[in-house]
Amino acid sequence: MANKITFLDIDGTMVDVPSGMVEPAESTVKALNEFRSKGNYTVVATARSKAPTSISNLDFDGYIFCNGNYIVFKDEVLYDNCLSVEDIKYIINLSKKYNAEYIFSGIDGTWSNDLDNPLNIKHRELFLGTKDKPKDAFLSWEIEDVHANMSTVLFETEEDMLSFKEELPKNWSVHPYVEANIRMDIHLPGLSKGTAVEFLFNKLGISKEDTFAFGDAQNDIEMIKLVKHGIAMGNGTDEIKSIAYYVTDAVDNDGIAKALKKFKAI
Q1: Coiled coil located at which positions (predicted)?
Q2: Which residue among 156, 189, 222 closes a domain?
Q3: Residue 233's CATH number
Q4: pLDDT for 124 beyond 70
Q5: Containing H/E element for 105?
Q6: What pTM was computed for the model?
Q7: Whole-angstrom Cα distance, residue 8 to residue 142?
Q8: Is 150 helix (H, G, I), strand (E, B) or coil?
Q9: Residue 255: C-alpha distances to residues 111, 214, 239, 247 (Å)
Q10: What CA–CA distance (Å, rounded) separates 46 from 227?
């Protein structure tokens, strides 16, 4: 059994695509490799539906995708919470009402209404670092073919986003953002990023005392709270830094490596 486990967000934690940092720092790669070499586990915990190629130079033991709605560990799928056909139709119709762009995401790929729409292009620039269409995007699809664990909806205005949110089922998990672009991530009731983290370390029989998590934003707060060593990045929001067990340096200044060294995990 591994001694310790660390959970890592991607955007703003291991990479920072908007600022041009598209790959993890060399110090992060070295630190996580050393952490694993001691018999410990590293797990990605992200709102994304799959790992970007930018972190392919790292080996992870598991992945928590779509803010907890898809969990895989050592190639075994432990949880797969998918949107139904009815859910997808509802999001599509509501998106039309507010002139919004929708993206459905899952481990098999992405399904969008208009990949050439400026909102979609900007979203790719921010999070993929390119205007190019994703290689895993389905260009032609039927609703019945979609196997998605989340939807991201892109808006022209914050007002549209807030009105859209009011019409969603109240028990759905919704994360709105206005910092880089105006968007919201939508998930079904079930595990969240935080409860997925807790589910996994309990399943593996790892003591909470030996758990770490790194994050930078609002959707990382629950995860940060549910581990022993909840570490906020120095570039993170004031909100997450206010509740963190420890605040480390920024993503582009060896923050992950410095924290793991401080707590003698490497």
Answers
A1: none
A2: 189
A3: 3.40.50.1000
A4: yes
A5: strand 101-106
A6: 0.87
A7: 34
A8: strand
A9: 35, 9, 18, 9
A10: 16
